[in-house]
Amino acid sequence: MISGYIMGAEKAIAIDRFPKRLEMAKKFAKAEMINYKKVNAGETLKETTGGRSPDACINAVGLEDFYDQTKQKLRLETDRPHVLREMMVACGKGGTFSIMGVNGAFVDKIPFGAAFNKGLTFRMGQMHGQKYINKYIYF
Fold first, then answer.
1. Span 103-112, pLDDT tens digits
2. Residues 12, 32 contacting (CB under 8 angstroms)
């Protein structure tokens, strides 16, 4: 989130289900918080952005729900499609869809048509945090 501000973002919104992570995002990145276990994240994003939807969505990688966890254990898929699906629907027209971290590559039920119709720009790859950590972040 801090990198978002460095790149010119006006606002950062953290979406998670763990209060401790949300509090860290608020404390260190001045992010607004959405706990998707308590509210509908998509609707809350619409309200928070005044109906525009986010200009950029970033997936910092995680394993989301029982369905996806089960499919991964059975080796039927190896990635985290739950958040990817939600991001494609939530991201605004002409927005940027970023995935950083480590991803396994096999996913299913991705709303690619939604991403295509919105003209999303995809940015993804291994995040090289060591290149930037000492330059911008001071704790």
1. 655 677 788 8
2. yes
How many domains, the chain?
Answer: 2
Q: What are the Cα distances from residue 125, in Å, to 43, 56, 62, 64?
A: 29, 16, 15, 20
> Residues 5, 12: contact at Cβ < 8 Å?
yes
Residue 131 phi, psi dihedral angles, 5° rounding:
-70, -30
CATH (domain of 74): 3.40.50.720
- The answer to the question of residue 3 being in a domain is yes
For residue range 49-91, list pLDDT tens digits in order. 898 889 998 887 655 555 666 766 776 655 556 777 888 888 9
Q: What pLDDT is recorded for position 3?
A: 72
Tell me if 61 sits within 8 A of 53, measured CB to CB.
Answer: no
Asked whether residue 43 falls in the same domain as residue 62, the answer is no
Helix, strand, coil distribution of the chain in percent, nearest 5 = 40, 15, 45
List the domain range (segments joined by +) for residue 73.
54-133
112-129 b/e with 16+ CB inside 10 Å = b?
eeebeebebeeeeeebee
